[in-house]
Amino acid sequence: DVKVTQSSRYLVKRTGEKVFLECVQDMDHENMFWYRQDPGLGLRLIYFSYDVKMKEKGDIPEGYSVSREKKERFSLILESASTNQTSMYLCASTSQWQPQHFGDGTRLSIL
Amino acid sequence: KQEVTQIPAALSVPEGENLVLNCSFTDSAIYNLQWFRQDPGKGLTSLLLIQSSQREQTSGRLNASLDKSSGRSTLYIAASQPGDSATYLCAVRSIGANSKLTFGKGITLSVRP
Q1: Alpha-carbon gap, residue B67 to B90, rounded angstroms
Q2: Which among A96, A97, A104 has CB closest to B42?
Q3: Which pLDDT value is given to residue B99?
Q4: Which residues does chain B have with pLDDT short of 50?
């Protein structure tokens, strides 16, 4: 069974802090994704990576960056956290033609 | 630009009913369509994946159909149970979109005992 693990279920940070969200998958998937989910707005894609060191902006990349130094790990970075980045963050991975598999999510609060 | 719509946003049914959840999409040029389940505060769990060449997929009490030409998919849940209460999302992978998915906003299902 595919396992996508997000490092934290809940996280509280302060405005202006640099925040790292980590995601690890164990199925050698080449594609990994970061989404945020907000009530009424649904899932929105932040960034996408199709290979090590390769990344592509999603629909809402502003205020975020990503890092993929190893195939199994995809990190989302909030360079200077702001209150409007309070949200549920979801990581997913997939291989060609396969279903996307999601982690349990990180509920991030920025105070 | 692909758009995915799920109506209604919420549904409440008594236990034991067979029910159909609808999903529509605007661009029929898709590789596949995926149905997910999300429990409150959790991530998404993949239920069924239908490739564009397929008409339906079945898993237990769940059956998903795809009519690509009309831009519609349905998720049929047989003999619903309170444990089926969750939000159900559909997502399409469009041709030319790499592996990215376009999601609907989901249908929140409540099955009453």
Answers
A1: 14
A2: A104
A3: 80
A4: none
